[in-house]
Amino acid sequence: MIDLIPKLNPNGWDEMFSNKGVRSSYRKVLQTLENLNPENLNQKQKQASDLFMNQGITFTVYSDDNQGIERIFPFDIIPRIIAQKEWLGVESGIKQRLKALNLFLEDIYNEQLIIKEGVIPAALIASCPHYIQEVHGIKVPHNIHIHIAGIDLIRGAKGEFYVLEDNLRCPSGVSYMLENREITKRIFPEMLSANQVSMVGNYPMIFHNILVSLSPRNTSNPNVVLLTPGIYNSAYYEHTFLARQMGIPLVEGRDLVVSNNKVYMKTTSGLHQVDVIYRRLDDEYLDPLVFKPDSALGVPGLISAYKQGNVALVNAVGNGVADDKAVYAYVPDMIRYYLNEEPILNNVPTYQMENKEEREMVFANMENMVIKETNGSGGYGMIMGNKASEKELKNGKVAILENPRNFIAQPIIQLSTVPCFINGELKLRHVDLRPYALCGPNGVEIVPGGLTRVALTEGSLVVNSSQGGGSKDTWIIG
């Protein structure tokens, strides 16, 4: 028997405990855990680590000198649980958000009515490095630009969910969500079944069906491939995992060739036409004839084939304009404009550094702000005002003044906490949640759960794996 009640989070929401005791969704889990002694739990944590090691479930962290270090993905054995009733609100909010964002992308690459009617400033879009003029006017299959999205959510102090970020280009982490569940099945099979946890394992099948549905050719068996930058990419494990799960070839740019505006895969039996490419390659590397001329990762002529409608790309080219952090601030306006609805999920308050009044207010309160680059990712280039030195804050102000369009600021929100099993005890650690939504001709499907990312360092609010974060299995029960 082990005492598993940690100190409560004094500044925010804890997922397992309230000031009245254990939340109802966690009671069965805590009961199971309390019947295990520390040695049992340590064995299960070691078993989980060994399974991750043996299956090669890794990611790559890059150091200051750009050297990649491959690491086993840290996994905490205590699940994060969300009640079904609460999840339904999250699901509705994400579906609403993605519907508006997709309409925005269709509009911004065609008639641009949202700019003409003054809802979003033209300069904001024109200055976005991920607005791709080369694909203006392209008709994508079924008018769907976003096929897979990872929407990052956090909880406020009262437990309400906020959208922190929209990942609409090449969202990563799905493999860890799926592997986390498989590991949990191995170490806590009875606990999983006793809580009637919603299934996530059908994700590859749902996604594969969507990919097939996007084929521009009228064929019963279209050729779908996953395009990877190669073994040195930080998410290469995920690329191999998803290709294997969906039963599709994993290819690099050198495996594809364009002829007569059609894409072909080189095989031992000759060239086979490719209909759909799930690309894990950023826009600027896709085609050296259009973007970076020195890119050896892409396929010369690919954008020409795309423009002709002979191949579908997932996600669509140019989606980055919709997950620019400066454009993110306008998503509630998009929902009102395109859907005539109020947002179900709110944004975190966001201040534009191009706005002089907002910039001065942020400068006066830097210690309470997080400063983000509008097109940064992975937690890089971020300044946490409450942790930064005077020099870092000063340098941040200089960088903002040099290029205010490149930065936004948000108030530091104490992320919710979830107990983690660390050194034989339950310790509270901050978490976020990345649910994965799949968008196809039949609508949006959201896998019930997603990837809970954990800031394993005590007191840290940075959950990114590249910054020392880990993950948990996420259960939807009810």
From TrEMBL:
InterPro entries according to UniProt: ATP-dep_Glu-Cys_Ligase-2, CP_ATPgrasp_2, UCP005522
Domain Circularly permuted ATP-grasp type: 79-455
Protein name: Circularly permuted type 2 ATP-grasp protein
Organism: Flavobacterium soyangense
Source species taxonomy: Bacteria, Pseudomonadati, Bacteroidota, Flavobacteriia, Flavobacteriales
